[in-house]
């Protein structure tokens, strides 16, 4: 289930070298890292063609801003900008109308200071939309995805608190100081996430993987370097390797089991590999953390997987696998 509105996608990103971007430049890069002999695995980032904002996109931005800033002056100005008969749009082509509307929104909120997470997220949405629109006009690529992932962390046979300690320890040297501790505290306090950890106590074959993502301040820095043509791939790799700029985005907990050939697989399964030893991976919980103005402390999360369903538990999932002849590996 979703526990608050999801964050926006980071907007702009650089091409291979300064001033060498093209509209067809789709690029993916994986860089291997080792951080103080911890389990951190690698950085990945990818760029896609920037897309101009649409009339529908402007409508969503305006709605978000109107819900966050409810004073009568702002509401009146938003309504004025949304009016197709507004004099500022007279004689303009459709793409020029969109640009004028976007310019009007940026002017309206240029000096606005956020007072809460909802206002912060609405202003971020406007900024992201404007950056990607400018990137599309300049035929630049945009950063579609950037993440820092750990390798698998074995959680078998541990208490719930030890599980949490081990998960956060796997990324403590890669995420911003305090971020892992605050995410751990958030999980301790949330009943659903606390129950997930409790269900995993003493389990066999339970693994975890953690994904980090850039903080908003780093996204802004990447945007600026991209738009002025000064950011290179090596610059971006270095920035994504800076723990001060990273926060925990996703935690995936899963079971892995193996069995000899000729078996009837339990369903539903996420994946299996055919061979002399079959392996099955079942996702028990996938938690995506959501941030507001405080880039170290989550304000919410989305949660899916086996343990997100009230009737499912880790023991039931393990039992079904064992009934099918699987051996859970620790």
User: What is the β-strand count?
Assistant: 10
Q: Helices and strands: which structural class?
A: alpha+beta
> Would you identify the regions where 5 or more consecutive residues have pLDDT less than 50?
2-40, 260-276
Mean pLDDT: 79
Report the C-alpha radius of gyration, rounded: 23 Å
The helix/strand order is EEHHHHEEHHHEHHEEEEHE
Shape: elongated
Task: Supply the number of helical segments.
Answer: 10
Helix content: 25-40%
Description:
By secondary structure, the protein is α+β, with helices and mostly antiparallel strands. It has two domains: 27-45 and 143-328, no CATH class; 55-138. It is built from ten helices and ten strands. It has helices at 55-68, 72-82, 94-108, 117-137, 160-169, 179-189, 191-199, 216-227, 233-240, 314-323; strands at residues 27-32, 40-49, 141-150, 153-154, 206-214, 246-260, 271-273, 277-291, 298-304, 327-328. Strands 1, 2, 3, 4, 5, 6, 7, 8, 9 and 10 form a ten-stranded antiparallel sheet that branches. A hairpin with a 7-residue loop joins strand 1 (27-32) and strand 2. Helix 1 packs antiparallel against helix 4. Residues 2-40 and 260-276 have low confidence and may be disordered. It comes from Pseudomonas amygdali pv. tabaci. InterPro entries: AvrE_T3Es. It holds the Pfam family AvrE_T3Es. Residues 1-20 are annotated as: Disordered. This is AvrE1.
């Amino acid at each position: 289930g979703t526990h608050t509105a999801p964050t926006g996608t980071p907007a702009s990103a650089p091409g291979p070298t300064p001033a060498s971007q093209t509209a067809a430049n789709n690029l993916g890069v994986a860089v291997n890292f080792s951080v103080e002999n911890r389990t951190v695995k690698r950085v990945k980032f990818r760029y896609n063609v920037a897309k101009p904002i649409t009339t529908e996109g402007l409508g969503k931005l305006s709605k978000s801003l109107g819900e966050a800033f409810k004073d009568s002056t702002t509401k009146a100005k938003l309504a004025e900008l949304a009016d197709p008969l507004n004099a500022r749009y007279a004689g303009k082509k459709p793409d020029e109308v969109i640009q004028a509307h976007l310019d009007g929104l940026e002017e309206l909120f240029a000096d606005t200071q956020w007072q809460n997470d909802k206002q912060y997220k609405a202003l971020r949405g406007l900024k992201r939309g404007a950056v990607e629109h400018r990137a599309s006009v300049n035929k630049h690529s945009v950063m579609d995805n950037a993440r820092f992932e750990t390798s698998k962390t074995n959680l078998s046979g541990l208490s719930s608190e030890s599980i949490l300690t081990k998960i956060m320890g796997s990324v403590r040297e890669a995420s911003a100081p305090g971020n892992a501790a605050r995410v751990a505290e958030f999980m301790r306090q949330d009943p659903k996430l606390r129950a997930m950890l409790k269900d995993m106590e003493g389990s066999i074959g339970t693994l975890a993987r953690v994904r980090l993502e850039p903080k908003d301040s780093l996204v802004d820095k990447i945007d600026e370097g991209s738009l002025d043509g000064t950011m290179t791939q090596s610059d971006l790799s270095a920035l994504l390797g800076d723990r001060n700029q990273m926060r925990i985005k996703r935690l995936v907990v899963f079971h892995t089991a193996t069995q000899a050939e000729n078996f009837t697989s339990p369903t539903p399964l996420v994946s299996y590999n055919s061979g002399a030893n079959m392996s099955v991976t079942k996702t028990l919980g996938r938690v995506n953390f959501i941030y507001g103005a405080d880039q170290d402390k989550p304000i919410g999360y989305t949660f899916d997987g086996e343990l997100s369903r009230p009737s499912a538990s880790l023991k039931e999932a393990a039992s079904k696998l064992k009934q099918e002849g699987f051996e859970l590996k620790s």
